[in-house]
Amino acid sequence: MDRSQKAESVAFLTEVFNEAGAVVITRNLGMTVAQSTALRIKVREAGASFKVAKNSLAKIAAKGTAYEGMIDLFTGPTGIAASADPVAAAKVVVDFAKTNDKLEIVGGAMGSVVLNADGIKALATMPSLDEMRAKLIGLIQAPATKIAQLTTAPAAKLARVFAAYAEKDAA
């Protein structure tokens, strides 16, 4: 890797750190190319990114960002999963690590808060941003639906009473 490639890599990683809602640091313990490709596909489908990076370049890129506190996590063969949604990258990596023992979760960060492996696993259990939006919309719509039901209920009862009288008179 020549000097210009290193500069490009540092610039890319700095951009990732500046835009990410959460970053997950993993350690590759001998994954095959097929396993690595499967992980990258799953991460990409979740709207996140996964990059294997040199530790020295990742440390340089993290300096001056909110993720500066996790510099100590960059040891060994490191992979970086990041996403704007704080939960997306963590969910995919934790799910993949459950089925593949060659991927170890080292830790990560959510903004300036550094998380250990257990923190990342806890983050993965939280609902995603889209799920939270759906729940919020459901909560907002529920009162309006109930009001609509209450306002139409008396008219419906009245219509049933008239229908009962009509049936009685017809019989």
Automatic annotation (TrEMBL):
Signal peptide range equals none
Per its UniProt record, what InterPro entries does this chain match?
Ribosomal_uL10, Ribosomal_uL10-like_sf, Ribosomal_uL10_bac, Ribosomal_uL10_bac_type, Ribosomal_uL10_CS_bac
What sections of the sequence does the record tag as coiled-coil? none
The domain of life for this entry's organism is Bacteria
Could you name the Gene Ontology cellular component terms for this entry?
large ribosomal subunit
Which Gene Ontology terms cover its molecular function? large ribosomal subunit rRNA binding; structural constituent of ribosome
Under PROSITE patterns, the record lists: RIBOSOMAL_L10
For the keyword Isomerase, the answer is no
The UniProt record lists the keyword Ribonucleoprotein: yes
Alphabetized, the UniProt keywords read: Ribonucleoprotein, Ribosomal protein, RNA-binding, rRNA-binding
| GO annotation, biological process | translation
Which SUPFAM superfamilies does the record match to this protein?
A: Ribosomal protein L10-like
Function as written in the Swiss-Prot or TrEMBL entry: Forms part of the ribosomal stalk, playing a central role in the interaction of the ribosome with GTP-bound translation factors.
Q: Which PANTHER family does its entry note?
A: 39S RIBOSOMAL PROTEIN L10, MITOCHONDRIAL
Q: Which family does it belong to?
A: Belongs to the universal ribosomal protein uL10 family.
Listed under subunit, the entry gives: Part of the ribosomal stalk of the 50S ribosomal subunit. The N-terminus interacts with L11 and the large rRNA to form the base of the stalk. The C-terminus forms an elongated spine to which L12 dimers bind in a sequential fashion forming a multimeric L10(L12)X complex.
Do you know which NCBIfam families this protein is assigned to?
PRK00099.1-1
- Identify this protein by name: Large ribosomal subunit protein uL10
User: Gene encoding it?
Assistant: rplJ
